[in-house]
Write a structure and sequence with these properties.
Layout: H1 2-31, H2 36-51, H3 61-92, H4 100-114, H5 118-129, H6 133-157, H7 161-169, H8 174-213, H9 216-225, H10 229-256
Helix pairs in contact: 3-6, 3-8, 3-9, 3-10, 4-6, 5-6, 5-8, 6-8, 7-8, 8-9, 8-10, 9-10
């Protein structure tokens, strides 16, 4: 009898939770003006607009490939620079490596960076460096710090303290503890997180390119502004190919290092 009452109570709690979730969802939809009629109308209009992309203008396919390569380079350089700074910040933000004052300061830097979207970073950098790839690289590099810095710092804090203490007991200094005790355990995570961030930066490079960083994003934005939708269709095809190729490359690298997908 007690078990039956417990199950009934559990079911009632689940049902109440669904009611609360449904109520919040409905209230949120009303507050932002969402309704099924607008959704269906938007899907039809979007579909009709998407038809304008086809057939793509294949005469500009070569130009789009060069622009895509520029976007890949921007994402790659931004990821590498961001990774280097992220590793430094991660060690400073790990409680088992530094004291609480340094850790709190490093965590504050990570938190502040995570609160600033890459688009806003780009707008700030454009005012300093002007339009172009350099601003995009710096925006992506700074964006890496908030993500990779936090993930790597948390990973360092999860390392078994007994291993680090054993290395210290044989007279190892702080650098040796990091090199022989932490890096070997952290290597696969660094590779995995970096590949994931690089894939993310590839997508971000398209968005940032549309607002001043160059690359395929600029070509797509230019085509829209000039109402050259078939040219935009060519850019869209190249973007899809680029993203899929990068994802397959990342999967290949993960397979080579026996790393699970993030």
């Amino acid at each position: 009898m007690r078990l039956l009452n417990s199950q009934i109570k559990k079911r009632l709690m689940q049902f109440a939770g669904l009611i609360v979730l449904a109520s919040i969802t409905y209230a949120s939809a009303i507050s932002c003006g969402f309704n099924l009629h607008s959704l269906s109308e938007g899907l039809i209009k979007g579909g009709l607009f998407f038809i304008n992309f086809f057939p793509p203008d294949w005469s500009v396919f070569g130009e789009m490939l060069l622009a895509a390569i520029e976007s890949i380079v921007i994402a790659f350089v931004g990821t590498v620079i961001g990774l280097l700074f992220s590793i430094i910040i991660a060690f400073l933000a790990a409680a088992n490596i530094t004291n609480k004052w340094v850790r709190n300061a490093a965590r504050l830097i990570i938190g502040v960076e995570r609160s600033i979207p890459e688009i806003l970073l780009l707008l700030i950098l454009v005012s300093a460096y002007g339009l172009g790839a350099l601003s995009g690289v710096f925006a992506l590099a700074l964006g890496c710090i908030g993500m990779l810095g936090k993930l790597l710092a948390d990973s360092i804090e999860e390392i078994d303290s007994a291993t680090l203490e054993a290395i210290q007991c044989v007279g190892a200094n702080k650098i040796q503890v990091i090199w022989f005790g932490i890096i070997p355990q952290l290597k696969n995570r660094i590779i995995s997180y970096t590949l994931f961030r690089f894939e993310w930066n590839i997508r971000l490079s398209v968005i940032l390119g549309a607002i001043g960083a160059g690359g395929i994003g600029y070509e797509l934005d230019f085509a829209f502004n000039m109402l050259q939708y078939q040219r935009a269709g060519s850019a869209f095809v190249v973007i899809v190919i680029m993203v899929l190729a990068i994802e397959q490359t990342s999967e290949f690298i993960r397979h080579q290092f026996n790393i699970q997908t993030v």
